[in-house]
Write a structure and sequence with these properties.
Oligomer: single chain
Distance between the termini: 91 Å
Largest sheet: 5 strands, parallel
CATH architecture of the largest domain: Alpha-Beta Complex
CATH topology of the largest domain: Argininosuccinate synthetase, chain A, domain 2
Structural class: alpha/beta
Number of helices: 15
Number of domains: 2
Strand content: 15-25%
Length: 403
C-alpha cells in the first residue's frame, strides 16, 4: 500500500490543486479531510465530492460544530479570551480542532504525514503543526504552498491543465477565514492600515450606523457556560448561533486591529464576531458579580496568558492545560442571568442577578438599612497606608541629604 498524507481540505482552489500537487511532489496518496466548524457556504457533501474529483483517494467529512462549541469556544469564553484585548481568537480556536482530526484520521488510515494549505508567513502553519506534533509526534507535516512552491498562478494553471472541477471567477481581493465564532478578513486594500474598512467586507454584521430598534436579550450561565437565551434552554452552539444573528443585526462585533503575529510581523486584520463579543461582555459582568476581588484580579492576568498561548498555537501544551484547570475552578460560582441591550454596534449590560452573587445590598446602600460599620474605616486606612507612610519618611529630602 502506498504511503498516504491527510490534507486539511477547505474546497477552495489552493487545497483542491494541493491534492494533485502533493501526490506529484511526494508520490503519496492524498486523503482529504474537511471539517465543519460552522463556516457555512457550500454543503459538505459538495466539498467531499470535489476532493474526490480532484484526485483524493478518500474524502472524510467531519461535522465538528458541537465539538467546536463545547470543547474550544466554551473554554475561550470562560477565559474571556481576547488576544491584544480585542481579538476573540476566531481562527486560532479552530486550528487545534482541525489538527486533532488530522492526527486521528492519519492514524486510522495508516498515513505517515499530514498537510495544510498555509503560507510561510502566517500563524496557522504554526498552529497546525504544533498541534499535530503534540498529538502525534511521529507524523510529518507538509505545507504545499510553503514547502512545495505552490503559488496561486501555478494553482490556476494546474487546475486548467488537469481539468479540475474548480470554478474560476475574478479573484477575491481578500483572504477570508470563518467559523461559527467569527470571521476574519485580511489582504487587499486592507494591507494599508490607513485605509478604512468598507461595508462590502462584512457578512456576519449589519451596518451599526443604521437606525433600528434596540433588542434586549437575557443570557443565562451555569458555571460559566451559556445554557439559556431569554429563558429558553440552548446548547453552547445554539447560544452562539442565536447571538450571531441577534447581535450581528446591530453591527456588534466589528474589530479593526493591527495585530502582532507569532512570526514577528504586524498585520492589519478585520474581524466580525458578534456572538463572541456579546457573550464575553456578559460573562465578564457575571464574574464581576460572583468572583471575589483577589480571584478576579488574578484571573485577568491568566486570561491574557491563556489567549497568548492559544494564539501562538500551544492549545495542547502543558501550561495551557494547567491554566484550564485554574479557570475551570474559578467558574464554580459563575451562574446567573445577564440582561443586555443590543443597539448601534454595542452590547450593553443593563442587569445582572445570581444566587451566587457577592453583592450585598445592605452593605452597599447609602440609605436606611446600611449595615456597613463606617467607624472601622479610619483604623483600616491607617494600617493600610502605614508602609507608604514609613517609606515616605525615609525618602524625605531632609533624611536623604544626611544633614
Amino acid at each position: 500500500m502506498a504511503e498516504r498524507v491527510v490534507l486539511a481540505y477547505s474546497g477552495g482552489l489552493d487545497t483542491s490543486v494541493g491534492i494533485g500537487w502533493l501526490h506529484d511532489a511526494t508520490g503519496k496518496e492524498v486523503v482529504a479531510l474537511a471539517v465543519d466548524v460552522g463556516q457555512g457556504g457550500e454543503s459538505m457533501d459538495d466539498i467531499r465530492q470535489r476532493a474526490l474529483d480532484c484526485g483524493a483517494v478518500e474524502a472524510v467529512v467531519v461535522d465538528a460544530k458541537n465539538e467546536f462549541a463545547d470543547e474550544f469556544i466554551v473554554p475561550a469564553l470562560k477565559a474571556n479570551a481576547l488576544y491584544q484585548k480585542r481579538y476573540p481568537l476566531v481562527s486560532a480556536l479552530s486550528r487545534p480542532l482541525i489538527a486533532k482530526h488530522l492526527a486521528r484520521v492519519a492514524k486510522e488510515l495508516g498515513a505517515d504525514s499530514v498537510a495544510h494549505g498555509c503560507t510561510g508567513k502566517g500563524n496557522d502553519q504554526v498552529r497546525f503543526e504544533a498541534a499535530v506534533a503534540a498529538l502525534a509526534p511521529d507524523l510529518t507535516s507538509i505545507a504545499p504552498i510553503r514547502d512545495l512552491a505552490l503559488t496561486r498562478d501555478k494553482a490556476i494553471a494546474y487546475a486548467e491543465e488537469h481539468g479540475l472541477p474548480i470554478k474560476q471567477s475574478k479573484k477575491n481581493p481578500y483572504s477570508i477565514d470563518k467559523n461559527v465564532w467569527g470571521r476574519a478578513v485580511e489582504t487587499g486594500f486592507l494591507e494599508d492600515p490607513w485605509n478604512a474598512p468598507i461595508e462590502d467586507l462584512y457578512e456576519y454584521t449589519q451596518d451599526p450606523s443604521v437606525d433600528r430598534p434596540a433588542d434586549e436579550v437575557t443570557v443565562t450561565f451555569a458555571e460559566g457556560v451559556p445554557v439559556a437565551i431569554d429563558g429558553r434552554v440552548v446548547s453552547p452552539l445554539e447560544a452562539v448561533q442565536q447571538l450571531n444573528a441577534l447581535a450581528g443585526k446591530h453591527g456588534i462585533g466589528r474589530i479593526d486591529i493591527v495585530e502582532d503575529r507569532l512570526v514577528g510581523i504586524k498585520s492589519r486584520e478585520v474581524y466580525e464576531a458578534p456572538a463572541a463579543l456579546a457573550l464575553i461582555a456578559a460573562h465578564e459582568e457575571l464574574e464581576n458579580l460572583t468572583l471575589e476581588r483577589d480571584l478576579g484580579r488574578y484571573k485577568r492576568g491568566v486570561e491574557v496568558q491563556w489567549a497568548d498561548l492559544v494564539y501562538d498555537g500551544l492549545w495542547f501544551s502543558g501550561l495551557k492545560r494547567s491554566l484550564d484547570a485554574f479557570i475551570d475552578h474559578t467558574q464554580q460560582h459563575v451562574s446567573g442571568d445577564i440582561r443586555m441591550t443590543l443597539a448601534g454596534g454595542r452590547a450593553t449590560v443593563t442587569g445582572r442577578r445570581s444566587v451566587e452573587s457577592l453583592y450585598d445590598f445592605s452593605l452597599a446602600t447609602y440609605d436606611t438599612g446600611d449595615t456597613f460599620d463606617q467607624s472601622l474605616a479610619k483604623g483600616f486606612i491607617e494600617l493600610w497606608s502605614l508602609p507608604s507612610k514609613i517609606s515616605a519618611r525615609r525618602d524625605l529630602p531632609s533624611h536623604s541629604s544626611g544633614d
